[in-house]
Design goal:
Rossmann fold; alpha/beta; 9-stranded mixed sheet
């Protein structure tokens, strides 16, 4: 890989904007997928069945934002949509280096699919004002769709770069390495832009005890549907604004290895093994 790919974004971006970068990091509180249970009758994840945590992929997005803040100077805002308990995840984000946090909390947001979720986030980002970068994780571990980032970019009418594994030196353009289908592509885009970063881009830092203590005292801004009304069509919130319908949820069966003993003569055994292979291959 060329040497320039090891270089971080330079101060040229900062000089171009004339001010600190404004970075927004959408985050989601998800259940621990190693423990969570599924409600197959209602077709949804039983989020109360497991402890909650920040979506692991979002931690890489936040770390990317904080590293840019440390190198260039930036204001980092973490934003999430969810119930009031998701405030815990945002306080964790503050402890890890975010400067401010916004929680979108309202029963009208409940039941949202990726389209309604991205629309609601876009409305809140418009309310926040201008921005230079939006940095998302590659996907969430509970949905695994990877759709919210690109949809958010479409709502905001900005370009997006997916599967970003490295940031590259930049001047008037932001340049990134995108890993797609086993190949590394060097892609550039003008600001503002949305990035979807992979877990290969960095190793998220752990917050210190002092940072955690300060985050517990920090203010988390909470907006409901009414406070977004100037920027949104309320019919596009929540389940009302979600065209996706889950018809069935089921857990795939896990079958162990199956063995078979052939006790025939050599020729018969060879014929039976060959037929078994053909049957397996379909």
């Amino acid at each position: 890989m060329p040497e320039l790919l090891k270089v971080s974004i330079t101060e040229d971006i900062n000089r171009r904007s004339g001010a600190s970068l404004r970075i927004i990091v959408p985050m989601k509180q998800v259940p621990d997928m190693r423990q969570v249970k599924f409600d197959t009758e209602k077709g949804k994840v039983d989020r109360s069945s497991a402890a909650a945590e920040i979506n692991p992929f979002d931690l890489h997005a936040l770390e990317t934002a904080v590293q840019l803040k440390e190198k260039l100077g930036a204001a980092v805002t973490a934003i999430s949509m969810g119930p009031r308990r998701a405030e815990v995840a945002l306080r964790d984000a503050l402890a890890r280096g975010a400067d401010s946090a916004v929680l979108l909390e309202d029963s009208k947001f409940a039941g949202a699919d990726t389209l309604a979720t991205s629309y609601t986030l876009a409305c809140a980002i418009r309310k926040l004002g201008g921005f230079d970068l939006i940095i998302c994780g590659e996907k969430t571990v509970d949905g695994d769709t990877g759709q919210v980032g690109p949809e958010l970019a479409e709502h905001l009418n900005i370009p997006h770069l997916a599967y970003v594994s490295k940031l590259v030196e930049a001047g008037e353009k932001l340049v990134a390495v995108c890993d797609m289908e086993g190949e590394a592509h060097i892609v550039e885009a003008s600001l503002p832009v949305l990035l979807m970063v992979t877990k290969d881009i960095n190793i998220p830092r752990l917050p210190t005890f002092r940072d955690k203590a300060m985050a517990r005292k920090a203010e988390v801004t909470i907006w409901n549907a009414e406070e977004l009304s100037s920027f949104a069509d309320p019919s596009r919130f929540g389940i009302e604004g979600s065209p996706t319908r889950v018809r069935k949820v089921f857990l795939p069966s896990e079958e162990g290895r199956k063995g078979k003993i052939f006790r025939n003569t050599n020729e018969e055994a060879i014929s039976d093994v060959a037929q078994a292979i053909l049957d397996f291959l379909g």
